[in-house]
Amino acid sequence: MAELINRPEYLNQLIQNRDVDLVKIVTGIRRCGKSSLLNLFRQYLSDNGVSDANIIHMNLESLRYRNLSDYLAFYDYVSECIPKEGKTYLIFDELQNVEHWEKAVESFRLDFDVDIYITGSNAYLLSTEFSTLLSGRYVEIRMLPLSFKEFLTFYEFSPSVTVEEKFQRYLQFGGMPILREYHFNEPRSNQALEGIYSTVVLRDILQRNNQANQEMLQKIILFLCSNIGSITSPNSIGSVLSHEGDIRSGKGKNVAGKTVDKYIAMLRSAFIFYSVGRYDVKGKQLLKTLGKNYIIDMGFRNMLLGYRDADRGHIIENIVFLELIRRDYRVYIGKVGETEVDFVAEKPNDKLYIQVTESMQSPETRARELRPLRMIPDNYEKIILSMDRNYITSYDGIKSLYLIDWLLS
Q1: pTM of the predicted model, to two decimals?
Q2: CB-based burial, 275-290: b 16+ in 10 Å, e otherwise
Q3: Under DSSP, is residue 277 helix (H, G, I), strand (E, B) or coil?
């Protein structure tokens, strides 16, 4: 087995939930490291005195379990393996391959002394019938590709490489763990990303949505990739594509918007994109219309569109969004009067307002970025993140931080 790469943030989440009577579900895009995480957790259990007999670890993509495609066969097989004595840890990888697996899982919880850990590559794992059955009885741990901090520990760099150059690599290649094997060889890395991308599109989306049209899906993905961090609505995307003759809309234009909406929901379910809603900061309410979409990993975007330095503003905005999600914030786009704040990030007892910009050097940009933050009437922290290694660290109480320092903080 390949050397296991530690991802302590995620491993600690599993350890903190150990023996809590909830099913632990690790979700995330294919190949972001979920199986490795379960292997690490298994290792942790062994190192902490759990005997091998009390750990049942199955990857259901393995052909050895090909006969367990329905929940009854699966239940019977696993039940036979559970020892009579002591707590047993059930670790199931790629569980979406078992039909109605949730019925078996609920039954293990009721019938045996077990602690259950599951992964799956798509949100169908958390689809409605499942959440109803296990309502309130599971905890979801969302796994993302590597953060910049993790990226620095993942790769070997020669001592002469500056942190800026490393960050440039991160912007270009993204954080899918598999790329480590290619040492920043661009054609090989793109090939690997292409493989993951096609699997996600073909298996996680098209196989499960037989009405979906592959060409249409691809057009919407490319549109979203080109418009990262821009405010769009399904209708506006629909009209652009209808205009290009890609979606035939009926009498009204709405067909297009509804279609786009469905496709974006599929992309969210496969963890390729996140959609972020808008929040009216002064009226303190979520707005129904217009949001932004961010991609799960920059590598995919650059593989699809080619890497262009001109897009750096949007790319770093996307990276800040993912970092906020990693840090357990709920994230919105803020609307303050007629202006926008890039991110309103909330935790139960904390809130941040963040603007992201390539540079604060020009007075116009400075005025533009500070204006919405100055208009917010409360006292929560307000931050501007930029690529300036700045000696000005604050504008009237609004912090100005170097993006790389913030990512590594």
Answers
A1: 0.91
A2: bbebbebeeeeeeeee
A3: strand
